[in-house]
Structures are given as C-alpha cells and as structure tokens.
User: Fold these one by one.
Assistant:
Number 1:
Amino acid sequence: MDLSFNTEERAFQDEVRGFIANNLTEEMKRATALTPSVFSDPDIGMAWQRTLHAQGWGAPGWPVEHGGPNWTPAQRWIFETESARAGVPNVNVMGVKMVGPVIIGFGSPEQKNFYLPRILSGEDYWCQGYSEPGSGSDLSSLKTRAVRDGDDYIINGTKIWTTHAHHANRMFALVRTSDGPRQQDGISFILIDMKTPGITTRPILTIGGDHEVNQVFFDDVRVPVANRVGEEGKGWTYGKYLLEFERGSGIASAKLREGLKAIAELAESDLTGRAIDSPDIATRISEVDVDIDALEMTELRVLAALQTGQNPGAVSSILKLRNSEIRQAVTRLGVDVIGHDALAIEPMRPLYRLNHEPAIPEQMLTMVPEYLNGRAYTIFGGTSEIQRDIIAKMMLGI
Amino acid sequence: MDLNLTDEQRLLRESAERFVAESYDADHRRRMANDPLGFSPAVWKQFAELGWLALPIAEEFGGLGGSAVEIGILMETFGRGLVSEPYIATVVLGAALVERCGSTAQKQAALPKIADGTLKLALAHSERAARFDLAKVATIANKTAQGWRLSGSKIAVLDGHAADEIIVSAHIHDHRGPSGRIGLFLVSAQTPSLAISDYARLGGGRACNIELSDVFLPEAALLGDGDDALPAIEWAIDRAMAALGAEAVGIMQVLLDTTLEYTKIRKQFGRPLSANQVIRHRLADMAVQVDEARSMALRAALKVDAEPVERARAASGAKAKIGKCARFVGEQSIQLHGGMGVTEELEVGAYFKRLVAFDTLFGGSAHHYGRHARLGHTTVPA
C-alpha cells in the first residue's frame, strides 16, 4: 500500500496542472469562487466543458469507445483533485455524470450516437426530472404519466426541484407508463426536448437568494417513443443505477478541502480579526479537516475496490451521507468565521458581476448563502434518512 | 498510488484471524482478566513463532522489516479478540525506540531477543504533572563519574510489570547543569531502588507507576549518544497511536456485529428491535463511524514515515477521530443492548472498556484535535 504517486502519476499530475494553468481563465475562477449555489451558471460551466472536450477529457468516467480518456482510478483521482484545487467551474453533471452513463448502459445505438457527442461537446444542457410535489423520498410513487399514442407518448404531470431547468434544452425523466403490482413497476426512463410545446417552467428561489431549481409542468407534451431509454416499465432500474452514480461517483473530498482552506485563510486574516486565534474556531477547523481526511481515505479505498472489479454498493450511500454532512459543517464554519459580517445580505446575482461595491469583503459574500442553500445537501439525491435506510438494508441486512 | 493488500498482507490477516478465533475465546479473556500477569506467556511464545514479534524489526537485527500497514492488520485482529499481550509496549514502542535511538551494540543486544520473544520492553515516559504534553519531563538523569543517577516518577507505564527492561525518559543534567535534552535510558526491571507498582488496566492487560529514587545506571544505559530524544518519542507514540487506532477498529467491528445480531433477535412489542427505524438508523450511524475509523487508522499507518508535521497531523487526526467514533459506537452498543449491556454477563462491556482506554491513552479526542490545530491548517495531502 502506498499513498504517494509513482513516476507516471506524477507526470500526469504535471500534465493536468499545466493544462488547467493554460486554460482556466481568471473570469472562470472568480465566477466559480463567487457561486453560492451547487452548480455553476451554464455560460461558465459549459465554457469549461468545451475546453475539457477539446483536450479529450470531457467525460472522465466514460468508456473509451464513447470518448472517455481511459484513465486509471489514480488518474481520475489526480484530475478531480487538481481541478478542485485550481477552482474550476462545475460542468453539467446531469449530462456527463447522470444521463450519460444511463445512455451508455441501456440506450439504443441511435441514442448513443446522437446524445453522447452532444454531452461531450457541451451542445446539450441536461436537467433531471425525478422528484414531484407528491413524490420526494418516496420517489417511485411518482405520478407524471406518459400515455402511448401511436409513435409518441403524451406526457402530463409536473416535476419539481429541477436544477437549471431554465437553462436546459433537454431533460431526462422518470414517468409512469403503466400501473404495476408494485409502484416501482410501470416507470419508464424518457428523454425530453425542453422546447416541446406544453412544457412550462416556474422558478423557485432558495433561501440563500439563488434561482437554481424550478418546477416544470407538462400539459399534453408529445415525446417520441424512440426517446425512451431501454425497456418500457424498467425505468426504476435505470433510475437507481443513475442515483448510485450520483451518490458514489464523486470524488468530493478535494472540493471540501478547498472550501475549508478558503475559510481557514479568512480565519487567519485581519478581515475576521484573526478568528483562528479563538481556540474554539481552530479546533473546529481541525475537526472538519479530519472528517475530510476520513472521507478522502474512504474515497480512495472505494477507488481501489473499483480497480479490482468490486462493486462499491452501499458505500456510495456512506460517501453521500458524509459528503453532505461535512459540506454543511464547512459552510456552518464559514458563517461563524466571518462573525459580524454574516449579518450582511447581498441579494444581487451573479455575485461575480455586481454593479456596486458590496457591504462586506468579496471573499465573504458566499458564506451565508452557501450555508443557507447548503441545507439542501442532506436532502437532494436521497435524504440522509434515506441513505441510512439504504445502509441498514444493504450493508447490515436489516 | 495503491491501496490494495498484497498477498503477504492477506496471508497475515488470515493467520491472525485464525489465531484469534482458535486461541482467544471468551473463557481465555476471563482468565486473563483475573491473571496477575494479565496475559499468557504461552501465547507470547506463539507470537514469536508466528513471526509477529519480529514484524517491524529490520532484517539485519533478526526482524522481518514489516511496515505500519502490517502492524495495523495484526492490531485490528488483536482488537477483535481483545488480546492483552504486551505487543504495543514491547514491539511497537520498545523495539522502535531501540531501533531508532540505540547504538549498533544496543540494537544487536535487544532487537533479536525481542524478535524471538525472550526480551520484553516498556516505555516509561508519562508523568502526572505533564498530562499529555510529551515535552514535559521532570525526571532527571544526573551524569555521574560512573554513569547516571535517575530520579523521578512515571505513571501509566503500559505493561511495565512484565518488562525485562524499561525505557525511561529523563532530562539530562551534565556537569554544566540542565542540558535541555531528553535522554532515553534502558533500565533493567531488577535494578535496586526502582519501585514498580502495577495495577489492572481498564479494558484488559496491566499498567504500572514507577518511582525512581537515585537509580544508579552504567554509562551504557543511555540509548544512543545523548541527542535529544523528544522527536523520537513523538515519532514512536505517533506510530503507537496508529497501531492502537487499528486495534480500536477491530473492537468497534465486534461491537457493531454483536449489537446488530442482538437487535435482530431481541423482541419487544412483538417485533425485533431492528424493525424500528430509530434502531436501524442508529446502527447505520455506527457502521458509518466504524468505516470512518477504519479509513483514519489506515491513513495514519500510511503516513508514519512522512515528514514530522504531516505524520503528527495524521496520527493526531486519527487518534481524535477514532476516539470520537469509538465512544459513539461503544456507548450505543451498550444502549442498544439495554440493561444487559451494563452487566458483566455480556462481553459488550469488556470491549467498551478497551475503547475507553484507547480514547484515554496518550490523550483523548479534545487533546488531539488541539494538537492537530496547533500543527497548522495549511498542509495539503499528496
């Protein structure tokens, strides 16, 4: 066992660093640092996606025949770590990390040929149609219905918490195509063009003051049957496959570490009156730092298991649970470190294009909105309570 | 970067697990709890035959040249069996300090005997007034014409009662007065005016307090040439904390498994305890914390040879985090066993007590989060 990189891995690390240094613009960096929501705005995120794609790095997790870079787990680790360290924008994860793997795993050859290149190039921007107002944790109780009409489905219903639906040109959705004996039966996985007549989008503002999520309504929306992925009625299986990717594919610790470092730097600066000099703050920074160490090591252990062909299984729930809890601890610390300045609200967005001098130093602007919006981390992608249910069932057999 | 076990490491784990399963059952543990020695010399001999005592010692001194990862594999299994043999005192602390600080002659004299099971060591460093500050040593070693004269009081010496030789730390005073250096002295347990009072240790094994009143030692009792030994002491205790962390993981795993089984068979209100979501979620949290502790113990083991600040941060981080996880898993194991968990009739309490001892040894969670913080926040791994 060895945590250090070998010669090839160090050479790759240099390559990634060089690539980022040459391509990441100051504007992208500043915009990313000043984004208090989960995702980058598309103009920032997709610019980075195009840059990655030009290098052949547009989809690190994909198989090589679909345009993946054929990296070892260690290379993926290095790429994610260096990206986080440099502060690169978030790309459209709903495309690259969510619907992409499902199309690769279960899509038709036509779907693969059409959609995958457009995800890689950044031409398509995807959103996820899973939750509904009546179906949150109990997702498979979903009621949005797709009724067969010749070569089309006609879709009626509504989806909620749809991140960037107002930016996306495509949505992947779980819809009910029949009523089976179990509520998981009769769900299908379908790809929808957001410009189709009958789709309307209502913005939902989150408590940090950001417009990131939406409610989407479907009124007699006609979608070709050819847009269904895999078999009719098997959508729940594909949807769960995607959720495992959503929870477990991330190498999240590097980003958490950068977030904590930014807060530790503020704590060490005169802007906060050197908050670090309070033993309470210093110890809490260490506690979070150590929690990130543990998560990082678990991520590395999962990578090693994947390398030998093992399935991580319920470990993805441990990663999701701890990542979300630690993120919240980081943001809580951020609020406490900036002290009095946590009282200032900056309602204007985006924060990186303010047309006035903010009331507090720029690097403090995201702390409170990140803390507030960040309450969602333990809710989306399966609440912490659902993750504990999964751990109990899958790992402990109860 | 590689985190998979080698074939040798897998074999080591299998043989250790087999040993604990066959030789270390509840009856054995109960006998040891009432034994004046606190462990079995026959088992110690088996350890020697299995090569475990030689594991971290360099090959040129009769050892196997193993790493902290192998020590961790062994210790995790020891934790499962609640092994009470003086492995930490003799092999992890004692052999390491002799190997790092000793002269060639001292190494040749001690290390092969540790490896073959005929020499047991202990480290007497802690003092009451120092609490967990490793740099604070009030014991004094005065240079005399013939050698050294040591005076002071040591506490919480792990397995000192069983040691043939005790490594005692003391501030060196030469003819010019205090030198500002800490020395390590090899003191035979038979030395006159060495008063050893031992006691049964929380969670198994024994420990002792030692009074040194004008203990006269020959010149050669000093390990090495008298360089300040504090960095070596910190290094050795960081290694011991990584090893103890692995042991704690083994203990926690047993408690989790035992508690899980109990909640499946224990019925109240006409159904198993595990049918309640509040119980399932508690067990899920315990499983998560066992996993986090496992990650931290491995991380500390992989960093024992890193540069001092990185090593110390990894060791203190692991000690603090595993201590916190251990308290949670241990306390919840008792809680979920109900009244029976508080009795000596089940072994849950014995495992819990070893976890409490772990959290206390070399400083608890609060102490080590504090040390971690004092070491700075700017270190970035890899």
Number 2:
Amino acid sequence: MIEIKNLHVTVEGKEILSNINITIPNGEVHALFGPNGSGKTTLIMTIIGYPQYNVTDGEIIFEGRNLLDLEIDERARLGIGVAQQRPPTIKGVKLRTIIDFYSKNNPEKADYISTQVEKFEMQDFIDREINANLSGGEIKKSEIFQMVVASPKFLILDEPDSGIDPVFLSKIGGMLTDILKSKKNQDKITTRKSGLIITHTGDILNYFKTNLAYLMMDGMIGCTGNPQEMLEQIQQHGYEYCINCNRRKREFQ
Amino acid sequence: MSDNRHKKEFRAKQEHSDIINIEEEDILRLKEDNKPEIHSLDEIKAKDIKTLAEVGMVMNENNRSGSYLCYGQCGFVTAQFIEGLECIPIEEALEKYEWLKEKYWFKAIRSDENKITEAISSSIPRGFFIRVKKGYKIKKPFQAALFMTENTRVQGLHNIVILEEDAELTLLTGCTSTNSIKKGLHLAISEIYIGKNAKLVSTMIHSWGPQFDIGPRTYSIVEEGGTLINTYCSINPPRKIQMHPFTHLKGDNASAKYVSIILGTPNTCCNIGGTIMMTGDNTGAEICARAVCKGGNIVQTGLLIGKGKNCRAHVDCAGLMLSNEGMIEATPALRALNPDARMSHEASIGRVAPGELVYLMSKGFTEEEALSTIIRGFIDPGIEGISPELDAALTEVAEISGHGEGWDMIPIRNR
C-alpha cells in the first residue's frame, strides 16, 4: 500500500527526519509512538504533502506512485485521508460544505452520507462552522466523520485518542472500526483499509487490530515491533528503555 | 445634536466622497421621453434572459409574487395587483395617487440632497411603486430588474416602497446590462417606508461591465416595531460605484440590518457604506460589510448613530486581500448620544490563511476549489433562510474570486 524509503525531511533548513523506512501493506494498520517533538507529526504531514515540509532525500510510494511528485490535493484524491489533531477553523465554512464536496454529482453517495450522519449522530455538527467552538473530542469526531464519508484507502490519524473522555473515545473507536473494516458493496468486497496512527496512550488501538508499531526518537525510527508489547514497555519504563531494548537486541544478535 | 444635524453630516460626507460624475449630457438624456422597447417578459432576447437570471430575475416568475422590469428607460409590471400587493410604474402611481407626492415623494430624502437626487428629480419619473397593504404578508418574493439595453446610455430611477402596518415583503432587485454594452451610467433613488410592525427583506444583486458608473441611493424610514433587512451583493463590479443607504429607525423597537458583499477587481472603485440612525427607543441596528479585493479600491464605511434609549448596534467591516494590487479601507464608526446605548464595532483585513487552504486541499479540494470555498465562507452574510438567488450570487462571487490571476500571494507552495 505505502512504502517510505530513506526519507529525509527538513523544516526551515533544519533536518527533522532522517532515514525513515516504513512499509505498510494492504489491509494493515500500523501505530507510531514517540515522545513530543520526535518527528511523528512531521512524518505524517510529509506524507500528506504539507508544503513547509521539505523532502531532501528518499521517496514515498503509494500504490506504485511516488507521492512526492504529487500536490497535496492530488494525494488526497489518490486515497490518502487524514484526521488532523488541530485542524483550523474556517470562517463561514461548515462541515456540510466539506461533506457536500464529497458527494458532488453523486446522488448515491449523498444518500449514503445522509445515513452516516444519522448513524454517527452528526446532525448537530454539520451546519456549524467547521472546528469552531468545538471541544477536543468533537473536533476529533468531526475529522473522523469526514473520513467516513471520504472513505480514503489509507488513513492517517494524528492522536485521535488524546484528551478525550471514554464516551467520546468509544464513539470515535466505533467510527474507525467501521471505516477500516472490509465491506461488501454491490457484490464487491473491499479489503480492510490501511492506516498509520499516532497515539500516546494507545487507547484507540483497543478498537481494531494494529499489525505493527514504530517508535520514533529524534527524527528516526528507533524500534519496530508488536504494538501492545511496545506500548507496555513505554508505559512502564519510558521511551529510552524501549530504544535501548532494541539496541540490546541488535548487540545480542 | 438634532436629527437634521446628523442628516446634514451624512449629506456632507456623501458629497465629499462622491465619485460618480454626472455630465450635462446625462441629465438631458434622463429628460428624454423614450418609447418602451418591449412590453412583456416574452420579448426579452435569449442572451439577456441569461444575464437577468444572474441577478435573480426569473422569466417564468416561478415562486414570485410579481415582476417589474425597467428595460432601458421604460418599465412595466407583469402582475399589476395581487391581493394586498400593488406594484405599478412610478409614473402611473404619481398620476393615480395624489397622496404619493404629498406624503412620500422625496420625503425620506430631499430632492436637492445631492447631485444624484437633483438629477433624478429633474428627469421624467421612472421606476417602480410598491405598496403592501396593512396586514398582508406576501409570501413569495417580488422581483424587480433594472436592465440597461443597447440603447441605454443613462438610466435614472426613482422607486418608492411602502409597507403599511403589519405588512411583509421580500423584494429581489437585480441590476445589470446587456453584455454588448460596456459603458453606462445607472442612477437610482429608492425611498422605503416601513410601517408599524412591518418587515421588508430586500436583496439587491448587481452585475456590471467594466466601464459603468453606478450610483444607487436608498433612504428608509422604519416605524415602531418595523424591520428592514437589506442585503447588497456585487458579482461583477462596475468602474465606479458609490452606495450609502441611510435608514432612520424612527419608531421604538424598530430594527435594521445592512449586509454588503463586494468584489473588487483591477481598475474598479467601490465606495460602499451605510448609516443607520436610531432615534426610537429599544431599536437595533447592524451593519455587516464584506469585501474581497483582487484589485481596485474598496472603501467600506458604516456609521451607527444611537440616540434612542436602550438602542443596540454593531458594525463589522471585514476585507480579504487576494492580490498585492488594490486597496481596502474599512471604517466602522459609532456615535452614541444616549448613555444607555450599547454599541460595538470591529474591522479586520487580511489574506487567506495558508493553513486553511492546505487543510481543504488535504481533503481533496483543488487549490481553486479550496480558495473559492474559503471566500464563500468569508462572504456568508449569516442570514437565516438565505434566498437561493443570493446564495447563487455569493457562490458566483466566490468562484470569480477564486479563479484566475491575482491570488498568487498565498504562500502554500514554491511557485
């Protein structure tokens, strides 16, 4: 699905990411752990194509195409979807505006979207200014709901579980489970979607299977492994221990 | 300070900022007694039907309570009388009703108020007279179009709208010209009288060629409990437009809201403002001005005068710069003459935030679609139940603004 090879990224001339190598196959969801400032958000913003992130080396291959040759909107239309942690408010622009964009000239999709609005209880959100005067949980719900209607092939989620109460976590988890699962549509079965999820607490990982996790430290992938095991080690001993554990393993080998 | 003093100041301000030139030749043309070019909507040419539709005039009159069309110099009405609603050309109304001259003709504004009122007062009366009788609430909008044809160099109109007690009307006015003429002068005076507990929702949509000079003048008086909601949207700006409607909230509990949405393009000059004077107690006034500048000069002004007890008012001028060329000047102003007045203002001018643009692009919007969407949000007047005609006009403004040259100042990529 997506292959990141030898990726080096600078922001305002300073190298933030170096030698990132990640492969996420079709149907797999991977998690990205790491302390604040380690480069996690830089990595996902680079995949999405935000202009301030300058790739100095490497490539990002998505379904055989190098994303670095494409603009941000072209990447989105190719199937890269993102739920941002701190999306902007846009004066006068409503959630409905974005939802309507996805169903433009597609009445079938419009019908589907209206059922999803009810299913995920979004009626109170769609005619409000996007991301304005919403709680943290509501913003995340709004962002993930956009993924429900956009139905991207590859999901990028930036801390969908941070700072939200258990009730909202359950709602968001339910939405993500629904997006990711394989679906049967008009006798056509679509495989489970792929994704990359940044999480500190790992709470969101309880709602769907996560195949692999990475630990990012100082702009590099320091460790790769089982998400639950890695999370337990981080929670018990901290990020440094996890990195050292990996180093010890390599020395032992 | 007396009410007349405020009006005098308003007059002086208008004269000072007057940008519309009226030549002797124009005044002579306004005095010409021209024959009507057409007599019904069916006679309008196909290309003009499309142009009129852009400013909200629908030929099949679907969902309309009636129509007035000033085609060139002369106007006609399709629905002479619907129960409770009367619309006839002003020249007929002046002959029919003696009281019109005595009570309403140049009563909200003096005929020597400015050079536009002087020019119109000396010309042959043209325009529409609309009256909604006491207690009638006209559900479907009435549409009026002021259309300049190939034969029209100058158009001068004097409209009178009277809403009697407890009456309601939605008025859609579209002003434009046939595409083949690029130059002209359009002058219009509207006197609006809103009776006790009556309500007028007026939407005016303009679309002009690049060499037109436009001078609409609207003066309204609102009685006790009356409401005026006045929205102006300019799709294609003329070379020059100056528009400063003046509303007097005379009765207690009266309210008025002005909304203006202006697109400025290179070599255009838009001077758009408004004054609302509140002398009644517990009155409310709001001015909301939005300007998008792709070039040219835009001046937004708004003055709220609070004299009545417990009056409340807010003026908000906001501008969006899409080009390194051009200018927006925003001047919201308040004048309180009563210690109980609660008045506020705000003004802001800026460019499109790159973060907003890339956010929408990350959802799959192209750069142009994202820009148009942001502009459409910016110019949204925040009126509940916005008419489809205004909605279409705003979308058109956003799309024109979001396309073509003039917005490459937004640093979202290495261009």
